[in-house]
Amino acid sequence: MYQLAGVLLVMVSLVFSLGTRADTSELVLNGTLTQGSLIRAQLPPGSKVQLNGETLQQNAQGKFVFGFDRSASLEHTLSWQLPDGGESRRTLTLTERDYVTQRIDGLDQKMVTPPEAVLKRIRKDSVNVAKARASTSDLDAVFTGFIWPAAGPITGVYGSQRILNGKPSRPHYGVDVGAPTGTDVVAPASGVVTLADDLYYSGNTIVLDHGMGVFSTFLHLDSMTVALGDTLTQGEKLGEIGATGRATGAHLDWRINLHKQRLDPALLVPPRQ
Ligand SMILES: [Zn+2]
Predict the structure, then answer these.
(1) Å from CA of 102 to ligand 1 middle
(2) Neighbour count for residue 237 (Cβ, 10 Å)
(3) Cα 80 to middle of ligand 1, angstroms
(4) Distance from the CA of 158 to the center of ligand 1, in angstroms?
(5) Which residues are in the M23ase beta-sheet core domain (predicted)?
(6) 26 CA to centre of ligand 1 in angstroms
(7) Sheet hosting strand 237-240, strand order edge to edge
């Protein structure tokens, strides 16, 4: 049920060239070309790059990132201009994911509407989480290798979805690690804490900025051992697994965002059953 589509490092050489340039081997891509994937890439410093016509943020070394939604279309165009004016582009073709779908019929259709005070809190939580993922720091951590934030079996995967009485529910966007309350959670890559708060749905929640708009989020923590603004190095403890918020049991729900885009954390780390 756990899938890794392809290799983690893809070196792209001459594929498609426009204008006068013949050599496009300056493009380095690191990532799996599939739906839900974060791609880390580099061009010579001073280049400009666009994905499907949208300009991407680049750091001083010419490094940049981009991502593909859970149900992204399969053809995309990366185009760039080098400091010497040379222009190139390349078509990126994604593999299609096959997500876990579970149909549950005959459910008692009881709609539970939370009281106004709770709704207010839920709205405030989502504004705060959006703010925590709005930073555009150019931390280099996002370009390093990621490690799993906790030991334990995978009990939930990115993209999975339940169809309740024929109605598709919101897909699951995290990867769940099932482990007892008190199990250490560590930083999968270095970063800065942009949120450490108790939220209605996700309980004790930490958001970690890895740079270039890429964030880890850790949900349902039993305890948080870091605070807003703390800088963490890879492997440093940030809290412990728990079941806070609306969780059915102790587990870590780890998410990866590129700002508002929800990506698959499992594609960033070595495979695990
Ligand atoms: Zn989850």
Answers:
(1) 15
(2) 13
(3) 37
(4) 8
(5) 171-265
(6) 39
(7) 184-186, 237-240, 223-224
Cα–ligand 1 centroid distance for 228 (angstroms)? 23
9-93: CATH architecture: Sandwich (2.60)
153-176 pLDDT tens trace: 999 999 999 998 888 989 999 999
Q: pLDDT tens across 172-226, in order?
A: 999 999 999 999 999 999 999 999 999 999 999 999 999 999 999 999 999 999 9
Q: Which of 8, 6, 41 is nearest to 258 (CA)?
A: 41
DSSP three-state, residue 143: helix
89 C-alpha to ligand 1 centroid (Å) = 37
Q: Report pLDDT for 248.
A: 87
Tell me what the mean pLDDT of segment 249-257 comes to. Answer: 97
Ligand 1 geometric centre to CA of 252 (Å): 7
CA-to-CA separations, 153 to 3, 53, 177, 187, in angstroms, rounded: 14, 40, 6, 18
Domain ranges of the chain: 9-93, 101-268
Instruction: Name the CATH superfamily for 101-268.
Output: Glucose Permease (Domain IIA) (2.70.70.10)
